[in-house]
C-alpha cells in the first residue's frame, strides 16, 4: 500500500537500507537550496538539488549541488541525445515523482526515472536531499545516494 504522506514514504523507503539516515523536518521552508542551507546550517553547495528534466522524450532526474547549474550540453552528451532540454513543470514533477516542487526526493519516486548524480557533490562528506516536502531534509553521502537511487555518477555541471 502506498503511503499518502510523502515524507513518510521517504522514511519507509530509507528503512530498507542499512544507512540509518534521519529525515529532519523544519518549521521554516527548505523550498530552495538557499533556504534549505539556512535551515540546515550548511553552505548552499551541500544542498542536493533534485531537478527533473525532459530530454529527448525521456524524463531524467539530475541531482547536483545547490551552488551549480546543470550544463544542458553535458546532459545531452551523457544521455546521447539531441534536441531540447526542458525543465519539468510543477504538475509533471508531482505526477512523475509524487513530491511537490521544493520537496523532491531523488528516490521513493512514483514512477521509475533515470537518476544522474553530479560529481559536484563529492566535494562534501555529506549533502542534504529534500525528503518529500519543502520543509524537510536528510543527510546522505554521495555513495549512499548512489546505492539508494541506483543512479549514475557523472559530470553535468
If you had to describe this structure to a student in words, what would you say it looks like?
It is a single chain. The chain is α/β, with parallel strands linked by helices. 26% of the residues lie in helices and 24% in strands. The protein has five helices and eight strands, in the order αβαββαβαβββαβ. It has helices at residues 6-14, 33-40, 72-79, 90-97, 142-149; strands at residues 24-25, 47-55, 58-65, 85-87, 114-118, 127-129, 136-140, 152-154. Strands 1, 2, 3, 4, 5, 6, 7 and 8 form an eight-stranded mixed β-sheet that branches. The longest helix has 9 residues, at 6-14. The mean pLDDT is 95.
Amino acid at each position: 500500500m502506498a503511503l499518502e504522506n510523502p515524507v513518510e514514504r521517504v522514511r519507509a523507503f530509507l528503512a530498507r537500507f542499512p544507512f540509518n539516515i534521519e529525515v529532519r523536518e523544519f518549521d521554516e521552508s527548505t523550498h530552495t537550496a538557499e533556504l534549505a542551507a539556512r535551515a540546515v546550517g550548511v553552505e548552499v553547495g551541500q544542498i542536493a538539488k533534485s531537478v527533473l528534466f525532459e530530454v529527448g522524450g525521456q524524463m531524467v532526474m539530475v541531482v547536483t549541488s545547490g551552488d551549480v547549474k546543470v550544463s544542458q550540453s553535458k546532459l545531452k552528451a551523457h544521455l546521447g541525445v539531441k534536441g531540447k532540454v526542458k525543465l519539468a513543470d510543477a504538475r509533471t514533477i508531482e505526477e512523475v515523482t509524487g513530491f511537490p516542487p521544493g520537496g523532491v526526493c531523488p528516490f521513493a519516486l512514483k514512477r521509475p526515472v533515470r537518476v544522474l548524480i553530479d560529481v559536484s557533490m563529492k566535494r562534501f562528506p555529506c549533502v542534504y536531499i529534500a525528503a518529500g516536502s519543502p520543509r524537510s531534509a536528510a543527510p546522505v553521502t554521495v555513495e549512499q545516494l548512489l546505492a539508494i537511487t541506483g543512479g549514475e555518477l557523472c559530470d553535468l555541471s
